[in-house]
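Reviewers of the previous submission asked for a worked example of the structure-prediction workflow described in the proposal, so we include one complete record here. The input consisted solely of the amino acid sequence. No template or homolog information was supplied to the procedure at any stage.
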Amino acid sequence: MKKIFIVVTVLLLVLSCGSKKSAASKSSKHKARTERVSKPSQTQKTEDIIAPERTRTATEFSGTPTEIYIQMYAPIAQNEMRLYGIPASITLAQGILESGSGKGRLSVEANNHFGIKCHEWTGDRIYHDDDASQECFRKYNDPRYSFRDHSLFLKERKRYYKLFDLDITDYKGWAKELRAAGYATDRQYPDKLISLIERYELYNYDEAITGKSTVEVVVSTETTHKVVKGDTLYSLSKQYNTTVDAIKELNDLSSNNLNIGDLLIVKSN
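From that input alone, the workflow returned the following structure tokens.
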């Protein structure tokens, strides 16, 4: 009888351990099934998700708004150049022009630096007056996605295929072909891009990637003026014997407001 009792006790202990082990195993499996991996943002294709460091903020840099913009986004433009073969100088110049050096509404409220409209877009959106009233534009969580979408926009649309037949160092050719392909209706669009690239020497960012010179030596015939306290467009027009409208056109200014420290082109011979 004593032996029977011992055998029964041992069997109960074995069964108890097995039950606990099974329960623990089931709990572990359940936990594994409920874990989730963050889904890619709708702003990007899965294979094109960007995972470098965050976009740095303007307070981490110094200079004019355009100079700060270049410092912030040049590394991103260069990365796009490596991946998609679009000159960083062109990307930066378009970003400066389209976003107002990052000060325009679309770039501030939607991180959209290139004015890309919704089209087949399924992500967040913003409505803004452009060619028509309250048009739909893409909205991004981070400016980096706007730069990536700009690359995909040019790379995947057939009408821009001629761009990629051009030498990657030929920023003038790229500027002209962009308009020819229908990117912009402004006749001066190529000249504006080229002016920005040469004024801020954006071709240096192309050279850093390609390892070769991208431009011929440019002899500047422009007269520049660094804005100081008290300067106005009217006073500068009198000082340099030109007109307010001429200064605004040379610098792509939409208003008469000036910022101390800005470098303006006041005359081009």
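DSSP finds ten helices and four strands in the chain. We consider this example representative of the routine output the project will generate in years two and three.
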